[in-house]
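Record format v2
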Amino acid sequence: MAEQDSGGGHGAEAGTRAEAVAEDTVMRDLLRLPVGERISLSSYDTSASSGDATDPRNKTDGREAVARMARPLADLQERLWAAGTAGDRRRVLLVLQGMDTSGKGGTVKHVVGLFNPVGCRVRPFGAPTREELEHDFLRRVEKRLPHHGELGIFDRSHYEDVLIGRVRALAPREEIESRYGRINAFEQSLADDGVTLVKCFLHLSYEEQRRRLLRRLADPRKHWKFSPADIDERALWPAYQEAYETVFERCATDAAPWYLIPADRKWYRNWAISRLLLEHLKSMDPRYPRPDFDVEECRARLQAQG
Amino acid sequence: MAEQDSGGGHGAEAGTRAEAVAEDTVMRDLLRLPVGERISLSSYDTSASSGDATDPRNKTDGREAVARMARPLADLQERLWAAGTAGDRRRVLLVLQGMDTSGKGGTVKHVVGLFNPVGCRVRPFGAPTREELEHDFLRRVEKRLPHHGELGIFDRSHYEDVLIGRVRALAPREEIESRYGRINAFEQSLADDGVTLVKCFLHLSYEEQRRRLLRRLADPRKHWKFSPADIDERALWPAYQEAYETVFERCATDAAPWYLIPADRKWYRNWAISRLLLEHLKSMDPRYPRPDFDVEECRARLQAQG
């Protein structure tokens, strides 16, 4: 993980800005998967750290580091939102993918929970409805995109159509094969339209998944999260890992990179994703809009009103 | 929370329960406006406390009290959400109304921010679009209701159609007059369908509004929240207060009461609304669903899988 360096640095901006931006791409550089390469997931440690000096060392460190990010994250989100009210079309789309129990829901709770809910659009993707199945697989995604100034969060996404879709052969092979390219074209069009895509794969070990499923079974307050179907899916683990590797080979692009998040340790996962979002928001550098009214005149009118 | 006998036992209703529920209606009883009565808003103090012994005394107290509610609120929300996955149709709809700067946005940030974002559906209501104007005024509201298990939040609402709608005569008088009854019928149908309505009026003083508007003008990071139109609306303050009084007289019902929140002090507003939500969620008493699968069999299958 440490020597990952993948993907190459998002070219140098000019002047003093370049340095600030460089500092703000540490995790992006370390966690980003290479573009157009076949990787082997088994060679990535599910409980690794990124290896960067800023990495928290333990749960306490990690939680404190996340808490320290809450304020800057919320401030940047407010600026993004404010800019959105004045014509800035930019927004962020966080895509969360991973096996059952890998922590997609936990990320929403602990990381997305740091933001102002008014600007967050959380969209879980379950099995498509009969009506959705009648349309192109990207149609239901288009309807749930974040609006300008928002942080959109997909808990699962259009990638399910080349994951469970592939593993369970839910569509003809040629149809599945055609989807990778269509996803890339779709994501490129989003990027061109001001969407910053942050696609995170929560990389969990087979053994840790078992522990988490057993923990769900042991706790009546967690039974509702469990389904016997989870065991059937788990039986297909190698096929899913292979389907993910194919996704990373074909759909990690410069416009929409994939990030691999070691997910066996929840606090590390929360920290890494918070950092990733912080780095992206910082380099987007959203600005409060200038007033389109005369501030002094308004002040005078207000004071005259009594 | 510990003795909650989570998930399983749906028993132990009567007796001890009655007391707990009584304790949990303190703020509901103190802040609820009377049904079917004309009140005079000027007789309600905008910086009052409810007078209950549990009231926080100052900002520090208030913030700590809100922080202490975070956990029980999130726990109850999770139970509501879990129940929703198993057929429980109940949900909560928090309606926020109040003059500009009264703190609707601040409530979303500081109170709704305590909940898991996955179960929150924040819906701001701006001026209706041309398309929305072609339909009944309740149509756009119906589309934005919370789903089962969710906490819905309306930042402004259908009440705007009898507030600015009345003050600015945006529709014929008879149309406006007819809306109060239609709102009551609509809210009754929501209540019958499992929606717990918590309608909060953030009661701000004229003087405090001026201070807040001036503060927005003084801070470039807040200019985007300001519009010169706010000054025009402020000039109509007495007409708005009268329109609110009419709302409370006609639309405070047993099925959907109105709560008056003294809003000059932000920390008190946050505390009071958090308490109100806590009381409502506690008396809804949502339960984790029982598993519809054989826990022991699933455990055995998982362990056999290795």
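Confidence is low (pLDDT under 50) at residues 1-15 of chain B.
Chain B touches chain A through 47 residues (CB under 8 Å).
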